[in-house]
Amino acid sequence: xxxxxxxxxxxxxxxxxxxxxxxxxxxxxxxxxxxxxxxxxxxxxxxxxxxxxxxxxxxxxxxxxxxxxxxxxxxxxxxxxxxxxxxxxxxxxxxxxxxxxxxxxxxxxxxxxxxxxxxxxxxxxxxxxxxxxxxxxxxxxxxxxxxxxxxxxxxxxxxxxxxxxxxxxxxxxxxxxxxxxxxxxxxxxxxxxxxxxxxxxxxxxxxxxxxxxxxxxxxxxxxxxxxxxxxxxxxxxxxxxxxxxxxxxxxxxxxxxxxxxxxxxxxxxxxxxxxxxxxxxxxxxxxxxxxxxxxxxxxxxxxxxxxxxxxxxxxxxxxxxxxxxxxxxxxxxxxxxxxxxxxxxxxxxxxxxxxxxxxxx
Length: 361
Ligand code: ADP
Ligand code: MG
Known about the structure:
Elements: H1 8-13, E1 25-36, E2 45-57, E3 62-66, H2 73-80, E4 88-93, E5 96-97, H3 103-110, E6 113-116, H4 130-140, H5 149-159, H6 166-169, H7 178-190, E7 196-200, H8 208-225, E8 228-232, H9 236-242, E9 247-252, E10 255-261, H10 262-267, H11 272-279, H12 322-326, E11 332-334, E12 339-341, H13 349-355
Parallel strand pairs: 3-8, 3-9, 6-7, 7-8
Antiparallel strand pairs: 1-2, 1-4, 4-5, 9-10, 10-12, 11-12
Helix pairs in contact: 7-8
Bound molecules: adenosine-5'-diphosphate and magnesium ion (MG).
Adenosine-5'-diphosphate is lined by residues 34, 47, 49, 67, 69-75, 304.
């Protein structure tokens, strides 16, 4: 497949195992609106859940997506997984535009992208055994010869740590723990040999004691099978752990406002909103005060139906200036910081953060 779909600067920007290959998936200025019905009469109103998001996902890489509830993370994840179409913008699968694909081809290609949700219970058919849950996709998608389905199925269960396999084949989801169910969900995703897994808060509903083992399993799949992840979480610590050595994207009100190497973005944020997210993480030592000083000016949620010009974060931003309410900042690349930030005041950042009392180590 040809390269030109990827701009060189973008593909070179973040180290990825095979940065010269076309992306597994690329979004170009992708937006998604939902219709909101204030009342049955009156004007149609739309909410911009995603606004002009561009993103390249390379083979085998991990991208953490963070941001508060309602910022569009799940909408982004569902669009990446092909669960519903974007309202506008372009989506490229391995360099090829979805717009030019027929239905059958689209279905076949999108199989390479699997979505794993936070609730492993509702994701599994309650009256099917683990064996049936894995058997069906292997048979329907003809991933292996009929006579090899059983051995493949066992292989997958072992791969996700459900062994001895005999103990699990005839179990129903209700007979499994949350962690075991999420392993079955992962095994089912693996039946189709995915290139990319979108994990949307995939460990949020699992007991804290089990999280670590599920995350380690997911990482092992990335290393051994070369699977890429879009790892959606509202928890910065989880993002930092899972996307360590890769990159993190911070979203606010449907837009990417900062992205770059995980460690840099999470420990040394340069967008006021990312800095507020960081400051909201309770400190390990409560004697230092539970939270650091930086706060938004208001806790009101952003109005996603608002289409006035200017930065979407301006109403909450502690560093807002006149220009911010007139002109929306673009997501600009700062080579010295190894990242993209959408804020007019990024060049002044260490100084304004220090003046606000935010520690900036
Ligand atoms: P997140 O996963 O970050 O919490 P979502 O993508 O779920 O964010 O939601 C983004 C915004 O879109 C929110 O304001 C949410 O209320 C709205 N939204 C999500 N799904 C729908 C829908 N089906 N219809 C209308 N609004 C929706
Ligand atoms: Mg969500």
